[in-house]
Specification:
single chain; alpha/beta; 8-stranded mixed β-barrel; binds ligand C2E; binds magnesium ion; Cyclic di-GMP phosphodiesterase PdeR
Length: about 280
């Protein structure tokens, strides 16, 4: 009966799953061609140090320039990249672009750092460390001005690999941030035992922190624990002054969010941004 009913309906699940399969297929084609034709573009979002109120580094956020010259957000293509095994290719492409940008800044005496998101399938590549070092050679980037952002749950999914890599990056001088921290139920034991430099608290805790006492209490204790383990804290998702005031009061030292600056193409980025309250 259900079958008959749906068959007569334009919006039947079969049709919609067929069209979503088709959409996925098209997005995969777009992603593949973007990887080949260099149509992945980096946007840059400032992260401000609250001690100086100046930009300490920018997060590189990838966009796909489609055939109609529209920028597509990563939410539209990261799932497909993951399913198709394309994450390492995408991550390497972003790494190389970021390193080239840092190298240009380095030549101009600009000390702003860059943080780059890397995913578990990339970390799990047997030659990731070697590729990273080769890209440094190729681009002339200064590893001390780079930070790798690893989603908390990706970092602990294979602890042996993570531990080896993080130790390598320690010796190279590249810093590590645990991204989207707090939603993965990771024990602080991992934070203690791994050579991580930054804890980046997930924006879901920050967005309404000025209105929700429970979020404030949670973030405050995450900040205190991070600090007592010698880690620096970044919060993302600062969308207004009230939230900024709360996290400052709690002792957070780095902030990122639309209230401070949106992700920007390099041409629109103003590195002299100085945060005023
Ligand atoms: P993420 O690494 O946690 O990056 C932060 C995301 O939050 C970015 O979205 C940023 O634009 C957004 N954001 C920043 N401030 C605010 C704010 O105040 N309010 C709100 N609502 N959002 C804010 P975006 O660029 O769409 O990226 C989404 C996710 O996609 C990233 O989350 C990251 O996991 C992934 N991603 C982005 N670029 C790359 C990349 O180059 N490589 C990899 N592997 N993943 C990436
Ligand atoms: Mg990130
Ligand atoms: Mg994040
Ligand atoms: Mg995220």
């Amino acid at each position: 009966r259900g079958q008959l009913y749906y068959a007569a309906n334009d919006d039947s699940p079969d049709d919609s799953s067929r069209s979503s399969r088709h959409q996925k297929y098209r997005m995969k084609e777009q992603l593949l061609s973007a990887l080949n034709d260099n149509r992945l573009v980096l946007f840059y979002q400032p992260i401000v140090n609250l001690k100086t109120n100046n930009i300490s580094h920018c997060e590189c956020l990838v966009r796909l320039l489609d055939s109609e010259s529209q920028f597509i957000d990563p939410a539209q293509f990261l799932g497909i990249a993951s399913e198709s095994g394309l994450l390492p290719k995408l991550d390497y492409s972003v790494l190389e672009k970021a390193m080239r940008q840092q190298s240009l800044w380095e030549e101009s005496g600009i000390t702003t750092g860059l943080s780059i998101n890397v995913t578990a399938p990339t970390l799990e590549q047997a030659d990731f460390q070697q590729k990273f070092d080769e890209l440094l050679q190729l681009t002339g980037a200064n590893p001390h001005r780079l930070i790798l952002e690893i989603v908390e749950t990706d970092a602990i999914s294979n602890l042996n690999i993570t531990r080896n890599l993080l130790n390598h990056f320690k010796t190279v001088g590249t810093q590590i941030a645990f991204d989207d921290f707090g939603i993965g139920f990771t024990s602080f034991e991992y934070v203690r035992d791994l050579p991580v430099d930054f804890i980046k608290i997930d924006q879901s805790f920050i967005r309404f922190i000025h209105e929700r006492e429970q979020d404030r209490v949670l973030v405050k204790s995450m900040v205190e624990m991070s600090h007592s383990l010698g880690k620096k804290v970044i919060v993302e998702g600062i969308e207004n002054r009230a939230a900024l005031a709360v996290v400052k009061e709690i002792g957070v030292e780095y902030v990122q969010g639309y209230h401070i600056c949106r992700p920007m193409p390099i041409s629109a980025l103003d590195l002299s941004l100085h945060l005023r309250y």
